[in-house]
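Posting for a labmate who doesn't have an account.
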Amino acid sequence: VTMGKIADILQARGQLDEALRIRREEEHPIYERLGYTRDLVIGRVELAITLIQRGQAADLPEIRQLLLSSHAEAKRLGLPEADQIAAIVKQLLKIEL
């Protein structure tokens, strides 16, 4: 949780590469190891948003995969965040879920 907050601060400061590194290398592996599925789903959405902020066209396939898989997992688990993720997908990817 603390590493996620640090990544959030770095992201707000525009230090996107370091925020991405923390999310990928420190935050997500812990959620996976602990089996925190909800936190992992939300973390993947945050990762996608950080990639969007970075603004590199090469990141589009990963952004799409992260958002679509996060939505599918949130829906499968019955998480209330599924609707929010669907709204993000619609807004950013122009895909209706």
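Reply:
Got it, the structure tokens are right above this. The chain has a mean pLDDT of 93.
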